[in-house]
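Q: I'm building a small set of examples for a reading group on sequence design. Run inverse folding on the following structure and report the sequence directly after it, with nothing in between.
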């Protein structure tokens, strides 16, 4: 094709070799993630059992990935098949409980479990509420009364928290008059 379009005649072998290497690396990622997929499945079942959620309501799908930095990991998606109107108010609490159990089993899970998402099947059994107007989206108005504001985040600890903290410290130091003589050291995750 390059000869026809006037380009330099490069052989197709290097790209085919790269595609083959990428496919092999992804296959290796999938096989090395097999125990992790099993951990996710077991943890999901245990979390549901502990909170009394029927076993046919939530399932999960895992996607093994290899990042551009050659880091192996996975994304997990919870599939809500039934009881969505009952599960919906407790999504964050369920997700937090799931993360706690995963991290209890594997303290380094935040290194390989990149994300947890949700997908809902079918129409809501109770029907949907109409969306409120534009003025209703204030934070204090959207939180149900049963939610504990001090309960914490539902995301795993990661480098973004450390980065946000570092940025806040740097901004505070930059707004204070005087010389910038000492920048606090923060431990880095590896």
């Amino acid at each position: 094709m390059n000869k026809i379009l006037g380009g330099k005649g490069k052989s197709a072998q290097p790209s085919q070799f790269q595609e083959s290497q990428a496919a092999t690396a992804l296959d290796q990622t999938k096989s090395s993630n097999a125990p992790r997929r099993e951990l996710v499945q077991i943890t999901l079942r245990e979390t549901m059992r502990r909170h009394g959620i029927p076993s046919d309501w939530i399932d999960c799908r895992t996607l093994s990935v290899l990042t551009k930095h050659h880091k192996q990991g996975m994304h997990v998606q919870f599939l809500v098949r039934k009881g969505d109107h009952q599960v919906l108010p407790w999504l964050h609490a369920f997700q937090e409980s799931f993360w706690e159990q995963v991290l209890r089993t594997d303290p380094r899970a935040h290194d390989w479990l990149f994300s947890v998402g949700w997908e809902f099947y079918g129409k809501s059994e109770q029907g949907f509420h109409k969306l409120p107007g534009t003025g209703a989206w204030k934070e204090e108005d959207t939180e149900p009364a049963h939610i504990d504001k001090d309960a914490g985040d539902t995301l795993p600890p990661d480098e973004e928290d450390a980065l946000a903290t570092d940025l806040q410290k740097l901004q505070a130091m930059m707004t204070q008059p005087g010389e910038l003589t000492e920048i606090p050291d923060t431990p880095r995750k590896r």
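The longest strand covers residues 58-66.
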